């Protein structure tokens, strides 16, 4: 009989020397496939780990569906999500074996519809999503990084959209990447497939921080913990407003943001933060959308 691997709430998944409790209670035997993603949550921080290094963490339809499920998993205390990956490749993008003529147009449509759903979900959920990148992120894998609110990468990480070299222009990755980096940088990436180094990716705004490999987890968790110190309701309002106003012209963006500032002041946590500042004390957040006044 194959030796069973215990995965329970009491078990831990070890990543970079840190122990985290696994979500749920499941048993996997050595004859069963490992889950495509692993979800962990502790102290408001949810970690979703792409867990298919043998296939370069390709964003197959099954991987995308698993990622979507773990992002949507309900939790009242969720404050921030971190997406990372096992192995030397963060994600190589879509599984090209799923994109052959044998699969057919209907299947291809489902793949790209699901991918777009996951990428927009990352930007639409009320908590920040951080990409923790250690390795290569290409095509839809690069799109995943660009879709996150914050991205921390190691010095040796690289980013590319090489689809043009295999006859499949990275049109859907271009949606996220073209909104993260200057247009001419995006076009050079898309037209040539040439990779960006981590430092060039930082320079052009694709990622937010470059750190030594041994500090990746520490630096990423520091950002996540900092987010957790703020009011969940205020962060949710701010994230939604940022996404909305970025799609608007200047005048409309100011109108939107000004209204939301007034709405923010009407929140119980908005008033608590102001009182705490005046009284020189730490705020006590309700983390709800409860109003202090109309």
How does this model look, in words?
41% of the residues lie in helices and 20% in strands. It has 294 residues and is of the alpha/beta class. A 6-stranded mixed sheet has the order 5-6-7-9-11-14, sandwiched between helices. α2 runs parallel beside α3, α3 packs parallel to α4 (171-177) and α8 (232-246) runs antiparallel to α9.
Question: Descriptors for this entry?
Answer:
6-stranded mixed β-sheet, 10 helices, alpha/beta, single chain, about 290 residues, globular, disordered N terminus, about 20% strand
Short overview:
The chain is built from 10 helices and 14 strands.
Spatial arrangement of strands, main beta sheet: 5-6-7-9-11-14
- The helix/strand series, from N terminus to C terminus, equals EEEEEEHEEHEEHEEHHEHEHHHH
Q: So what's the overall shape? A: globular
Rg calc:
20 Å
- Total number of beta strands: 14
Helix content: 40-55%
Structural class: alpha/beta
Distance between the termini: 65 Å
Low-confidence stretches: 1-19, 21-29
What is the average per-residue confidence, as pLDDT, rounded to a whole number?
Answer: 91
Q: Please work out how many helical segments DSSP would assign.
A: 10
How would you sum up the major sheet? 6 strands, mixed
Strand composition percent: 15-25%
